[in-house]
Amino acid sequence: MGFLSRLFSRKKPSKEVAKERLQLVLSHDRMDIPPGVLEPLKDDLIRVISDYMEIDESGIDVRFNNQDSEEGRSLVASIPVVRMRRERTR
Amino acid sequence: MGETLVITSGKGGVGKTTAVANIGAALASRGYCVALVDADIGLRNLDVVLGLENRIVYDLVDVVDGFCRLKQALIKDKRHDGLYLLPAAQTKDKTAVNPEQMKRICNQLKEINVSDEAGGAKYFDYIIVDSPAGIEQGFKNAVSGADRAFIITTPEVSAVRDADRIIGLLEAEELPDPQLIINRIRPGMVRTGDMMDIEDIVSILAIRLLGVVPEDDAIVVATNRGEPVIENSGCTAGQAFTNMARRIIGEEVPLMNLDVKESLFARLGSFLGLRQR
Ligand SMILES: Nc1ncnc2c1ncn2[C@@H]1O[C@H](COP(=O)(O)OP(=O)(O)O)[C@@H](O)[C@H]1O
Ligand SMILES: [Mg+2]
Q1: How confident is the model at residue B256 (pLDDT cuts 50, 70, 90)?
Q2: Count of C-beta atoms within a 10 Å radius of residue B87
Q3: Which candidate in A5, A7, A22, A30 is best for mutational testing of the B interface (most B CBs within 10 A)?
Q4: Does B177 reside within a domain?
């Protein structure tokens, strides 16, 4: 697209569009957490939360939701609570 | 002791084979002894780009399977003293070799004496591996023996995205700090804002830059003839590959100004028969 036609069409230069699309797609690609990261994260969550409440470890579900929202992806953890602890164990 | 380099990309058709042939030829013209390894098993290309397709007797898979010795499979380049090709097999697939075996070949190449003279000694200074496209076993094979990695991309969204993926995978393969080659830049389009420029791509990928190659018809012509473009010293792509070879051996070479060719002064210069550089 020539200089003059851009002046009249007032369109963004296509390289700016390319950059924006690339940055968005990469922010998603890079968020892909390998399974080797999620498992230890789950173990750490169990450890920390168990200080405050008794939980059903077999029912735990930790994942990244794949729905794209404004802020990008989010980490969603569903942790069944059996009962609260009166005092912290640590 | 020699060093093994790999040129890889994720996306196909972005210039890996062209870069391997030309950087290899440029290193050889500077007096280094270089082995080019075609790791694209089943889709061999490096032999035709170098014009050596009629000389192949044995290939990489023959070496791995023990049908021949490594030295028997190495083909001497026609034009450059010290440049050799280890061709890929054409009729097998990527699973014919595993990363362990590939690593062994790269290590053997570092130790082999390729001197023709009795009692003479000549060892490879550089081994350059041409990687297939993709992220599967062919990629893993290609990078398994490497000491340094180079990622090549074109200034397009899809190619840069794949390059980003490869950077992550190289980290997992313990090849951190790869360097970037940007190929097929068209200065005219960059100037009008219709192509991402060097700075855009480098800042998005956040890795070091080895060099930039312009889109150049001379590459098509050279590939037709089966010879590297660095022969053609007047062409900018050839100059770009020579500059990259010099950076690989540790020289400080500034990026060339790709706009120069189209500036009024240069146009005038070439009109008068003057040549830049
Ligand atoms: N800078 C360039 N200018 C013009 N053509 C190029 C350039 N780089 C590569 N090509 C052409 O692009 C095609 C793909 O290049 P190739 O090196 O085979 O890519 P890959 O090995 O990554 O698949 C070839 O036809 C090659 O001649
Ligand atoms: Mg190739």
Answers
A1: confident
A2: 28
A3: A22
A4: yes
Whether A37 is covered by a domain: the verdict is yes
Is residue A35 very low, low, confident or very high in pLDDT (cuts 50, 70, 90)? low
Q: Is the pLDDT of residue B172 over 80?
A: yes
- Is B225 near ligand 1, meaning CB less than 6 Å away? no
Collect contacts of B185-192 with beta carbons under 8 A, ≥24 apart.
B185/B155, B185/B212, B185/B213, B185/B214, B185/B215, B185/B258, B186/B214, B186/B215, B187/B214, B187/B258, B187/B259, B187/B261, B187/B262, B188/B262, B190/A15, B190/B155, B191/B259, B192/A1, B192/A2, B192/A3, B192/A6, B192/A13
Q: Contact B56/B73 with Cβ under 8 angstroms?
A: no
Q: State which residues form the domain around A28.
A: 2-84
Confidence check: pLDDT of B270 > 50: no
Which atom of ligand 1 lies closest to the CA of B184? 1
The pLDDT tens digits for B177-189 are 999 999 999 999 9
Separation of alpha carbons B248 and B92, rounded Å: 33
Number of domains into which chain B is organized: 1
**List of chain A residues whose C-beta atoms are within 8 Å of the C-beta of residue B200:** 15, 19
B91, two tokens: 């009729």
ipTM above 0.85? no
Phi, psi torsion values for A71, nearest 5 degrees: -90, 5
Where residue A26 falls among pLDDT bands split at 50, 70, 90? confident
Q: Whose CA is nearest to atom 10 of ligand 1?
A: B15
CATH number at residue B254: 3.40.50.300
